[in-house]
Amino acid sequence: MTEHIFSLVFRTVLMYFSVFIFMRIMGKREIGELSIFDLVISIMIAEIAVMAIDSETPLYDGFAPMITLLVIQIVTAGLSLHYPMVRMWFDGKPSVIIRSGKINRDEMKKQRYNLDDLVTQLRAQKIDNIGDVEFAVLETSGQLSVLPKDNSEKETAEPKYNKRDSTNNKDTKEALAASLASKIKYEALPFSLIMDGRVDDDNLKIIGKTRFWLKNQIQAYGVNDFKDVFYCSIDHKGKIYVNTKEKWL
């Protein structure tokens, strides 16, 4: 029994330092930002190390495949430095999710990246309104890089009103923003009102508004039906953001 325990302890310590050394050889990139290729290599090395801890398995049965994976990773990383096509094949390429406040719906669908993921990652970077984003790029590691609009140029796009209502629109909009700001309780969070054509009635109740009011808001942006809206939100200042399902350019 003592010999068995000693063998397990020895193998565990040996595998720990072996995996640690392998990861260091593979580079710091493995720790900071894992691409799909990096993730597969890391998981496989970890799984093989666990199996090698078993006292009934010869150590070389564990080290041989681990060294093979290490060589594959080093060779691939070396080729990626010199050949962009190899790098794109293994790591993929970043995806532009937002450009000039417009959501790239097609790219989100392609990457299977939903609106909840987008809003969560924007919120983590203290962005409460998609309209304030100049560019948002989904990196190959799955992280979202966000470039906010310049504060000096950050202005809300004016809705398309009829000319006959232009004199009162500004006052009405300011009054509406003030009333909404007073009703929204959670100032750090934007409220999603429409997601992929579906109205969030719970959030409408929180701000004390109805679907009729919401329809008037989207009509001011030239949209007549909820189904034509990909995403609509309101921030704590009462600023409305509307992104339609029109083809992204």
From TrEMBL:
UniProt-listed Pfam families: DUF421
Subcellular location as annotated: Cell membrane
Chain segments carrying region Disordered: 148-172
The keyword Transmembrane helix belongs to this UniProt entry's keyword annotation: yes
Keywords: Cell membrane, Membrane, Transmembrane, Transmembrane helix
Transmembrane segments: 6-23, 35-53, 59-83
Assigned GO CC terms: plasma membrane
InterPro entries referenced in this protein's UniProt entry, alphabetically: DUF421, UPF0702_alpha/beta_dom_sf
Family per record: Belongs to the UPF0702 family.
Stated name of the protein: Uncharacterized membrane protein YcaP (DUF421 family)
